[in-house]
Amino acid sequence: MTKWVYSFGAGNNEGRADMRNLLGGKGANLAEMSSIGLPVPPGFTITAEVTAAFYENDHKYPDDLKGQVDAALAQVEKAVGLNFGDSAHPLLVSVRSGARVSMPGMMDTVLNLGLNDTTVEGLAKAANDPRFAWDSYRRFIQMYGSVVLGVDHHRFEEIIEHAKLDAGVIEDTALTADQWREVVEGYKDLVEQETGKPFPQDPHEQLWGAIGAVFGSWMNARAVTYRRLHDIPADWGTAVNVQAMVFGNMGNDCATGVCFTRDPSTGENMFYGEYLVNAQGEDVVAGIRTPQPLSASVAKSGEIPLEKAMPAAYAELMEVRSTLEKHYKDMQDIEFTVQQNKLYMLQTRNGKRTVAASLRMAVEMAREGLIDEAEAVMRVNPSSLDQLLHPMLDPTASRTILGKGLPASPGAASGIVVFSADEAESRAAKGEAVILCRVETSPEDIHGMHAAKGILTTRGGMTSHAAVVARGMGRPCVAGAGGISVDYNNQMLSAGGKQVRAGEIVTLDGATGEVFVGSVAMIEPAVSGDFGTLMEWADKHRRMGVRANAETPLDAETARKFGAEGIGLCRTEHMFFDPERILAVRQMIISNTESGRRAALARLLPFQREDFRQIFTIMAGLPVTIRLLDPPLHEFLPHHDQEMQEVADSLGTDIATIRLRAEELSEANPMLGHRGCRLGIAFPEIYEMQARAIFEGAIAVAKETGNAPHPEIMIPLVGMKRELEITRAQVDKIAVEVFAETGTTIEYSVGTMIELPRAALLADKIADCADFFSFGTNDLTQTVFGLSRDDAGKFLPHYVEAGILAKDPFVSIDVEGVGEMVRIASEKGRAAKGGLKLGICGEHGGDPASIAFCEQVGLDYVSCSPFRVPVARLAAAQAALGAAGDRTA
Ligand code: ADP
Ligand code: MG
Ligand code: MG
Predict the structure, then answer these.
(1) Ligand 2 (single-atom ion) residues, CB below 5 Å
(2) What is the mean pLDDT of residues 781-796?
(3) What amino acid positions are annotated as catalytic residues?
(4) What is the average per-residue pLDDT within 179-203?
């Protein structure tokens, strides 16, 4: 026989907190509270397993359910000394739904069930309070009528409004017993009119009606939608709780309230909550009357705190608060009722909180000894830290919305509207805050994106160029705001009849995707002491190193400020877009002789050397991984006539020649074209120049500071061992030259990106010639799936929605496929070369789920954008602690 029903309360607790899958969160915690001696009205929980049985069996309950419910109900009757349906001393119950996770869309709670025309009289006599009895009865009909019988709840409200008008009173509480009695008559007529049947008088029929409504609500449209949006499987089902009523509406020594054991918005260790005297159920949150504070210390003038109104109940509640925190070791969200000065607990759960509160509580609870440091580290959601690392809009500031796009990169920014990267840069150079507004962005906009405070695009998704680059740079970004149009000709943004011209101010909220007209007040990120403390604790527990992807001195400084232990990816091509350099880059590409290229490269050398010198100085001896030139050359090509003319002039040729050369260089599929080490092999002088710049920069820093950097030179897009051999030889040759020229030798290593399936599969061979591997999981995802990230926006969202893919594989690593490649390469690489250093430098290096995977594979470090370094530090600690947990379990 299956056990479908679990009792709680009155010394018979069959459930426990860890049974939430079976009993739902509410039922499991009612049993738990009761078993630790807290005053919980007795009741029972019908398990969530009944849901599946009910739907599989044509909406019929398992045969033995009724018997088990009757037995449990009899126990409740015995415990409280009242009988269900008894005309003199009726037991009333509440029927409450409760799934494993709290889920809006489920049936609302029905209170005071068991009342009918007879029992209401019994209740009136027993309580010696007819007003209370009729108020309870009308509440019951109202709830049952709307929730179970589907009568529009406004129709009930109308009847009360009439009654109050007739009686000439404003507050519900001013109605007398007789006036409530009339309301009840009106309610019953309404129900009969609307449903064609009289209001059910039989308490058992009422009970099964309410139970059926809970199970029925599992499949209603609201609940189905909610589950789809939150990845909750339909087969979890919901439990149903039936519980003896206690009454907060029996007079002025009664109350009902909700509270948090600590302040859920700041995390402060203070009792936080509200109550209403002579009230029931959700009156507190319904806004009909103004709730009052719990503690005298926070009461404003005119307010009556529970501490004063009901000192005994308050004192008991304070005890409960500390008992619950000690027991659950976390902040609790509590619902309670006071009946005639006696406190009853009706619900407890771990309370929802802001990021700031979760940090503060984790740190303080560890200091109080409630939890240990490792547990504190586990308490804070790494992704949520993102919010603390960027400015936010002041929630109280007024604002005018222009439009909305995707929340592509968090943080808020205000600035003047500019429509080109060049203008962004020139105006920013004058000290103006600018917002770069583009239909979409491309690599040649990088300098403008860097100069801008924020980026707005009207096309593209979460993995569009704008979104990825903005996240990398820590710039707020709203992408794909399709409702806003960018008019380059007229230098204007327009949306819904509103227009913003170039030079006028807009504000972006990259966390919500909203765009506002004008400026909106902001709050600067407060990296408080608790934040630092938690990070220290995280660092103690993590195994993997955390580095940053950075190429500018500013990014490198940000990375260090946030605790990066080195640079995992310094993309040299980003250094080429600078206006001072791009001409030399273009000369190099356009020239079709080696000597022409060498001449152009010689002009770039001092710039690159200076770049590296700065970065090595900032990183002060920490490892710096520098990737040699990777992208297809055509990304640097001149586009419009003016640019072409400039290059032509500088080379003493004509624009037609330049155009022809540009056409020769164009590729059908640049992502799989002439890029990465293929460039270094075709044009050895490029990598030679870069290697020289690295060694000369490093030696300069060694001489200046006495602290020799250790460059890690990384060759991109290697698929064959021979490719690495050739390019490595180029680097080694330059090292010998520079060391001889300068009379100084430094340590360096040469390794490769693993970003092609062939490289992963043959990692043992490649490892022969590599000092380290760094997984370039952006390209690896593209090449393993055979999809282009620039085009994936058209179908990936559909794939995710249809469940073909669980998550966007560019955001969170596809463990099954791409992850398998990483695993194979790691194992083969290390088998061939023990202690081979392994890292990851794709976008995934800042994603907590991907970081957990990196821990499992045993990578040495993750590398992510500077602003995600704290996220990665915490996620790496959690991954290590989680893995330790798994081993001991
Ligand atoms: P929700 O899931 O929306 O929080 P609940 O099942 O917790 O719904 O019920 C809402 C409120 O109804 C509770 O906070 C409590 O005030 C009241 N309530 C529920 N059951 C009882 C009961 N047995 N006695 C008194 N009040 C109850
Ligand atoms: Mg509740
Ligand atoms: Mg790559």
Answers:
(1) 335, 347
(2) 89
(3) 465, 841
(4) 97
Using the predicted structure, report yes or no on whether residue 287 has a pLDDT greater than 70: no
Q: At residue 664, does pLDDT exceed 90?
A: no
pTM: 0.82
If pLDDT is split at 50, 70 and 90, which confidence band does 888 have?
very low
Q: Which ligand sits nearest to residue 346's alpha carbon? A: 1
161: in domain: yes
Number of domains in the chain: 4
Residue found by looking up tokens 């609940």 in the block = 223
246 lines ligand 1 (CB under 6 A): yes
* Span from the CA of 266 to the centroid of ligand 1 (angstroms): 27
Neighbours of ion ligand 3 (CB under 5 A): 755, 776, 779
Ligand 1 neighbourhood includes 405 CB (under 6 angstroms): no
Q: What is the DSSP string of 192-256?
A: HHHHSSPPP--HHHHHHHHHHHHHHHTTSHHHHHHHHHTT--GGG-EEEEEEE---S-SSTT-EE
CA 344 to ligand 2 centroid distance, Å: 13
Residue 521 has what pLDDT? 92
On the 0-12 / 13-18 / 19+ scale of CB atoms within 10 A, 805 is: middle
pLDDT band for 21, please (50, 70, 90 cuts). very high
Do the beta carbons of residue 480 and residue 375 sit within 8 Å?
no
Nearest-CA residue for atom 20 of ligand 1:
94
Helix (H), strand (E) at residue 73: helix 65-80
Q: What six digits make up the tokens of 337?
A: 């009722």
Ligand nearest to the CA of 24: 1
End-of-domain residue from the set 197, 216, 244: 244
Taking alpha carbons only, the member of 754, 755, 783 closest to residue 767 is: 754
Q: Are residues 150 and 207 in the same domain?
A: yes
